[in-house]
Amino acid sequence: MAGIILAILVGMFVLALVTVVSIYNSLIQIRVSVKNAWSQIDVQLKRRHDLIPNLVNVAKGYMAHERQTLEAVIKARQQAIDASTLKDKQQAENFLSSTLRSLFAVSENYPNLKADQQMKQLQEELVSTENKIAFARQFYNDEAGRYNTAIQTVPNNIIASTFHFEAQEFFQIQDAAEKQAPEVKF
Q1: What secondary structure, in 3-state letters, does the chain show?
Q2: Of 135, 121, 130, 116, nearest to 47 (Cα)?
């Protein structure tokens, strides 16, 4: 009889251990997926950051007296590159988007700039990159939501709290003006 009870206890312990390990591993996989999704945003943001100096250089030749606008774009780009936390990156990227909209608005006053082939190509690449950023942000938020749900549901929440799994922030647009799509005309 004692052997049966011992076997049942050992079996229950092994089952509990397998369950904990399985849940822990699944939480790790989802967390890695969230980090990968954030990396995809970073890749697209770097692409945008790399395009901006070319865009500004092309615009400089036509917009010599719009120095303040061009400097604001360069400054916003540097702030976006230097940002380290998710919240700082969100704010910096939102500010960069705002300054780019200002650049595009000012460029409307320069017909030769609008007709410049290099400017058109850079604008098309920037629009493509902005779309990729939007998709990457959406994917990140989907993965962060899946992860946050996983660490808050029973029995995962017990394992998650034991091993200090932290909820992930969503990538959000801070400013109401940012929620409107920029109108870009070249």
Answers
A1: CHHHHHHHHHHHHHHHHHHHHHHHHHHHHHHHHHHHHHHHHHHHHHHHHHHHHHHHHHHHHHCCCCHHHHHHHHHHHHHHHHCCCHHHHHHHHHHHHHHHHHHHHHHCCCHHHHHCHHHHHHHHHHHHHHHHHHHHHHHHHHHHHHHHHHHHCCCHHHHHHHCCCCCCCCCCCCCHHHHCCCCCCC
A2: 130
Give the span between the Cα atoms of 185 and 87, in whole angstroms. 30
pLDDT over threshold 90, residue 147: yes
The domain segmentation of the chain, as residue ranges, is 35-130
Average pLDDT, the chain: 87
User: Could you tell me if 139 and 40 are in contact, meaning their C-beta atoms sit under 8 angstroms apart?
Assistant: yes
User: Which amino acid type is present at position 120?
Assistant: K
pLDDT in tens, 95-106: 998 888 888 887
The string of pLDDT tens digits covering residues 23-78 is 999 999 999 999 999 999 999 999 999 988 888 888 877 776 677 888 889 999 99
Percent with pLDDT over 90 in the chain: 53
